[in-house]
Specification:
The chain is 48% helix and 9% strand. The chain is of the alpha+beta class. Strands 3, 4, 7, 12, 13, 14, 16, 17 and 21 form a nine-stranded mixed beta sheet that branches. A seven-stranded antiparallel beta sheet has the order 2-5-15-8-9-10-11, with no helix packed on it. The chain has a three-stranded mixed beta sheet with strand order 20-23-22. The N and C termini lie far apart (133 Å). 42% of the residues are buried. Component of the KPC complex composed of RNF123/KPC1 and UBAC1/KPC2. Interacts with UBAC1 and CDKN1B via its N-terminal domain. Interacts with RIGI (via N-terminus) and IFIH1 (via N-terminus). This is E3 ubiquitin-protein ligase RNF123. It comes from Electrophorus electricus. Its EC number is 2.3.2.27. GO terms for molecular function: ubiquitin protein ligase activity; zinc ion binding.
Length: 1236
């Protein structure tokens, strides 16, 4: 047979290795974790896997070679900066220099695609996670060669130093967080060289021969039957063999297993002999069910082997399968991946084996998640994508924001043919990937089986407890990436788990009367407070769990019939205080004895670790509720104490409940419907899925969407080429660049097809959409529970917001959110949550409140989501606007202000642009200019705002005072920063302005503009707030407004002033700082009060504006380019609204001209009037006439000064007496003085 031939060939190849000279060191080759390292590294228990934990760490093996041909393999787990190769004992490494940076050390770096030996040159190909690098050294010829996935990269080094005293060790240098696993020969090499290179570690040749021979005997017995009638042996198909066969056959097998079982505890023999034999059984094709022989063999293993032998064999078999799956090359039909997944499925179909693996293997070292990952090929040619997708296509026209245009456009016949051919290729690829995904789902469904209770606890409950601990490990170690499950694995795992859970959910619905289907799934609120599910140290909406239990213990008793033990609350509080100390102590005490940590006593972290030892982690139980289940249901229900069990101690009854015990759903609040949902174990898995999305899946979804750059550069080249016909040298370079970009674009187009099929397909989009709806329904049910809403974990709100963002931004243009079922209703539900929760007093976390505010600000930017906000009930809309108009002090006012501005954009003066007009004038072709969303104002929400400000005078005054205060602060900060920037620019020595300072400066400017726009909106919607002086604060608000407007105008419009000089520097980071945004905002306010108001309002506004000592008419003239001095040079262009005819309408220009004419005339009349004597001026500001007298002290000032003073102080300016009242004052006439 072919298998026997392979075994014999291996035997012949390695028979003389033990006698070959040229090697020094232990027979078992591992990494030298005692003295052969530099820097800080994490080394696995088997001393073959390593993770860098410092800047540039190095480590070598324990064995060296000085003669002959040798090789070893490195399994690349991360594709970052690493240098892999050989070094001598004399090489000295440090945190800056590693393998290849010193004499007598040689390395290959697939990250930078170079080879290193003191100097460096280009060499080889780039590697990716999942690749295998073979390192070969020929000490007879003096050469070093590297191979990538079995393909030689050519001779890297020749004439290397050899001779007496020179021996080379395998060695690696790797940067922080990079990880690899070595294979020196402890396992069969994946790509053994055909040129007589030997692995550094001798294979177990004697055991190989023995194992192959015993396996041959076993196959012969399985193919042999006994005819009892003729009393002779007969041949039969081994697939038809049954364990309940002839006793003689079983006894014969027992003799074989007596010798075979000890061999199956060795990883080399399991991978080379057993795994290949089992794979050969499935080579005939067909479903896994058609090959019962594997099930029968596993029965034999558990029957004829000792338990420790069977368990070790099974664990090594699964580890070998996992490595084979992870490091198999991608081929067009994904044949390798399918082959290994089929065998994994066949093994997990065996009940006893499945439960053993779930209990001792799954998630313990994060390995089984790899089975659900489909890696993306870095090299599309080697993956066969060129044959599968021969025609590439890319969207050729983008809108100004760099996104695909949604409007229908003309498509040429050639473009249409290319697109359709590309889509057909993508569909072929997707069908092949779906085969792998279906096998992965089958594996998960086997793990979630809850019917296999005959032999002990059902598989699902074992899986559930392991899954929860897996989530805890990833949630508790977010600051230490080396111990986390890679996010790309989590994405695939999440989608497979959703498919499996929904399948079981809908299959079980008919068996549970009154239950809901998976489309209506949600997590009931009692799971958040009854202590049955541990949420580790994850934040709750109401703050720390111990604090919530203290403050809401009465509500828990009255609403959920749960009593909290005071002693337990105190214990939980102490645990919160000492959590860090206990965590550190726990890790030290429970550190695995076999863990090897190089460079210090560090806990073993890596998911690459040896399978022989599980990860020992302290399990943090934060539930402070003690659970004692009543024996029978009580009506009315009694108050019950509840106790939280550690995950590993929970049973099926604790989860599902029985005999009146509600299990996970103990403590139903009265607002929650009294109806079954589904099996309670599925609810906890669903809760874990939501948590998993929050931990890393959303972040990973956003990382992959970065492929538009090359398409953009290619189009820029197309645009520039026609202008370079006169310069042949430039034209040649551009054409060369265009070819490079075109090749890269074709490569990315095929990679994008793979990414779309595995991550951004329609099915994956529906999964994320389903998760969004789960979160929305969960939040709605929790919100209905009143004060108990505080127990809800923060991540439910985070996932609700992030999943919506992913659907909107990450899955387009291939799929649109508008195509999703119930899209508008879902948007409205999410809008209602954001509108209510952003100011919900039950939510105390600063970060989650900021996230809610930012999500609402993003929501009102887009027409579809803004319309959804307008569809929520009127009562909720009005409450939202009331919260937005609350005073800005003591809360994140900047985000609130952005929301109000976005409701106004499109209605303000010259406020209809999508790109800043001054940038389009200076850099019209720059595609990287900052851009804004298209204006989509909400007249309905503006109406609510106007009604609220009109009806509630106190709220209107406090809101506007806070806006004016913030404007004064933001603009003052901006002016201070540009002074520093100007001073730095004028110094003779070369200075670099801190980019952070520039960013803060631009932010202060943008805030000033947005605050001015909110004032413009307010004065437009409710002008009486400023102009109706019967309102208590109207005059003061108008005077404060005039003062700030004059300050802004004077600072920005003064000829050759500080603002002008900084704008003309054109510093990167200050692109948004220019005259147009801020002057147009100020103009909008002035036009509204001086042109669009009634006669009385215009007169009051003009009088206040002109009476302000800072008023200068030339600042108004500057808006239209009038009254400007001729200095500045011919090239200096002065600002004028006339230059922005595309953004400012003729009607708006006319109003500005009308305002200028009116103020010019009023200024002349004011200048002609008799000046007020100094005695009649306010002694505080010397700008206005005395108009108020204080009671009881009778001191005087103008109304503006005393009103502003009384906002913060009740004492008189002069005598410090307490002011009890203020009366109007008018100067007595001369006649009355004479009579007196």
């Amino acid at each position: 047979m072919v298998f026997d031939h392979v075994a014999y060939s291996l035997f012949a190849m390695f028979f003389f290795i033990g006698q070959v000279e040229g090697r020094l060191g232990p027979s078992t080759v591992v990494l030298d974790h005692t003295s052969g390292f530099e820097g800080l590294l994490f080394v696995d228990d088997d001393l073959l896997g390593v993770i860098g934990h410092s800047n540039f760490s190095s480590i070598r093996a324990t064995t060296c070679v000085f003669k002959g041909k040798w090789e070893y393999e490195v399994l690349i787990s991360s594709q970052g900066l690493m240098q892999i190769g050989w070094c001598t004992l004399n090489c000295r490494f440090n945190q800056e220099e590693g393998v290849g940076d010193t004499p007598d050390s040689y390395a290959y770096d697939g990250n930078r695609v170079r080879k290193w030996n003191v100097t460096t040159t280009n060499y080889g190909k780039s590697w990716a996670a999942g690749d295998i690098v073979s390192c070969l050294i020929d000490l007879d010829e003096g050469t070093i060669t590297f191979c990538l996935n079995g393909q030689s990269l050519g001779t890297a080094f020749s004439n290397i130093k050899t001779g007496p005293g020179v021996a080379y060790f395998p060695a690696i240098s790797l940067s922080f967080k990079e990880s690899v696993a070595f294979n020196f020969g402890s396992r069969p090499l994946r790509y053994p060289s055909l040129a007589c290179y030997l692995p550094l570690q001798d294979p177990p040749t004697t055991d190989l021969t023995k194992a192959n021979r015993l396996l041959g005997y076993m196959k012969t017995v399985l193919c042999t039957g006994i005819d009892p009638q003729e009393e002779k042996l007969t041949e039969k198909d081994s697939a038809s063999w049954q364990l309940q066969g002839e006793p003689t056959v079983l006894v014969t097998l027992a003799h074989i297993f007596n010798h075979f079982a000890p061999l199956m505890c060795k990883v080399y023999l399991v991978e080379d002999v057993l795994m290949n034999f089992l794979l050969s059984i499935l080579e005939g094709g067909g479903s896994v069910d058609e090959h019962p022989l594997i099930q029968q063999l596993l029965d034999l293993f558990w029957l004829l082997m000792e338990d420790f032998e069977a368990s070790e064999c099974l664990k090594q078999l699964m580890m070998s399968l996992l490595r084979a799956y992870r490091f198999s090359p991608i081929i067009p039909d994904l044949g390798f991946q399918i082959h290994y997944l089929r065998l994994t499925t066949a093994i997990l179909r065996h009940e006893k084996s499945r439960k053993y693996l779930l209990s001792n293997f799954t998630f313990d070292v994060l390995r089984s998640v790899v089975f659900f990952y489909i890696k993306t090929p870095l090299r599309v040619k080697e993956a066969g994508l060129e044959e599968l997708i021969p025609t590439t296509w890319w969207p050729t026209r983008l809108d100004k924001e760099g996104k695909d245009e949604k409007e229908q456009r003309h498509e040429s016949a050639e473009e249409r043919l290319r697109r359709r051919a590309y889509e057909r290729g993508c569909q072929r690829l997707k069908k092949r990937i779906e085969v792998v995904e279906e096998l992965q789902v089958q594996i998960l469904k086997l793990m979630l089986n809850n019917k296999d209770k005959a032999t002990g606890e059902a598989s699902r409950y074992i899986f559930l407890n392991k899954f929860r601990k897996f989530l805890q490990e990833n949630a508790s170690n977010r600051g230490n990436p080396t111990v986390l499950c890679p996010p790309e694995y989590m994405v695939c795992f999440l989608h497979r788990l959703i498919t499996a859970v929904r399948s079981y959910w809908d299959e079980g619905k008919p068996k549970i009367p009154g239950s809901i289907n998976s489309e209506e799934a949600y997590v009931p609120p009692q799971m958040f407070y009854n202590g049955k599910v541990d949420y580790f140290d994850l934040q709750r909406l109401g703050g720390l769990l111990s604090h919530i239990k203290k403050t809401l213990k009465d509500d828990l008793a009255t609403k959920a019939n749960i009593i909290i033990d005071p002693a337990e609350i105190q214990a939980a509080s102490m645990d919160d205080l000492d959590e860090d100390e206990e965590s550190g102590a726990g890790q030290c005490v429970q550190r695995p004895s076999g863990a090897a940590a190089v460079g210090g006593a560090l806990a073993r972290p890596s998911w690459l670790s040896s399978p022989t030892l599980g990860r020992a982690n302290r399990f943090l139980s934060t539930a402070a509720v003690s659970l004692m289940t009543p024996r029978r249901p009580l009506a009315p229900p009694e108050k019950v104490k509840v106790r939280a069990l550690p995950v590993e101690q929970r049973t099926e009854e604790d989860i599902e409940g029985s005999h009146g015990n509600d299990g996970l759903l103990l403590g139903r609040p009265p607002e929650e419907p009294d109806q079954p949902i589904t099996e309670k174990s599925l609810l906890e898995i669903l809760d874990g899925i939501v948590m998993m999305y929050n931990l890393s899946v959303h972040q990973q979804l956003g990382k992959v969407r970065k492929l538009d750059l090359y398409g953009l550069k290619s189009r820029i080249s197309d645009r520039v080429l026609p202008w370079c016909v006169q310069r042949s040298d430039i034209l040649e370079e551009l054409e060369k660049s265009q070819r490079v970009f075109s090749e890269k674009l074709n490569h990315l187009s095929r990679r994008l097809a793979w990414i779309n099929a595995t991550i951004y397909s329609k099915e994956k989009m529906l999964d994320v959409y389903w998760l969004l709806r789960v979160c929305i329904r969960t939040i709605e049910h929790a919100d209905a529970a009143g004060s108990l809403f505080a127990f809800t974990p923060e991540f439910y709100l985070n996932v609700g917001m992030n999943s919506y963002s992913a659907l909107k931004n990450y899955f387009s243009p291939a799929h649109s959110m508008e195509e999703l079922p119930g899209y508008e209703d879902t948007l409205t539900q999410l809008a209602a949550i954001l509108a209510k929760q952003f100011a919900d007093p039950r939510i105390v976390g600063t970060d989650i409140k900021d996230s809610l505010m930012q999500a609402l600000a993003s929501y009102v930017c887009y027409p579809q989501s803004l319309r959804a906000v307008e569809r929520i009930p009127e009562e909720q809309r009005v409450a939202m606007m009331r919260n937005l108009l609350a005073p800005y002090e003591q809360r994140p006012w900047a985000q609130t202000n952005w929301i109000l501005v976005r409701l106004w954009r499109g209605c303000g003066f010259g406020y209809r642009y999508t790109r800043l007009p001054h940038l389009l004038k200076t850099k019209p072709e720059d595609a990287n200019l900052p851009s804004l969303q298209k204006p989509c104002p909400s007249l309905l929400l503006q109406k609510h705002m106007a009604e609220l400000l009109t009806q509630d005078k106190d709220m209107a005054a406090s809101f506007l005072n806070s806006v004016l205060n913030q404007l004064n602060w933001a603009f003052s900060e901006f002016i201070g920063m540009i002074q520093e920037i100007q001073q730095a620019a004028e110094r003779p020595e070369r200075n670099f302005v801190d980019t952070r300072q520039l960013k803060v400066c631009a932010t202060c400017f943008d805030l000033s503009v947005s605050l001015l726009r909110v004032l413009e909106m307010t004065v437009t919607l409710v002008p009486e707030i400023f102009l109706d002086w019967t309102r208590p604060s109207a005059e003061l608000l108008l005077r404060r407004l005039a003062q700030l407007l004059n300050q802004v105008l004077n600072r920005v419009t003064a000829e050759r002033n500080l603002f002008d000089r900084v704008v003309n520097l054109r510093l990167p980071g200050l692109e948004s700082v220019d005259h147009y945004p801020i002057l147009v905002a100020v103009t909008g306010i002035l036009v509204r009060v001086l042109v669009d108001s009634d006669r009385q309002g215009i007169a009051r506004a003009a009088a206040v504006l002109l009476s302000d000592p800072c008023f200068q008419l030339h600042s108004i003239q500057h808006l239209l380019g009038e009254g400007v001095a001729s200095g500045g040079g011919a090239n200096h262009k002065h600002f004028s609204l006339h230059a922005y005819a595309d953004y400012i309408s003729a009607e708006e220009e006319q109003k500005v001209e009308q305002m200028l004419a009116f103020l010019t005339e009023e200024s002349k009349q004011a200048a002609a009037t008799t000046p007020t004597s100094e005695d009649d001026l306010c002694p505080i500001c010397y700008a206005h006439s005395i108009s108020a007298v204080f009671k009881p002290c009778s001191h005087k000032s103008c109304k503006a000064c005393i009103n502003q003073h009384l906002m913060n102080n009740k004492d008189c300016f002069f005598c410090k007496a307490t002011i009890t009242g203020v009366e109007d004052y008018s100067k007595p006439t001369a006649t009355s003085s004479c009579h007196a």
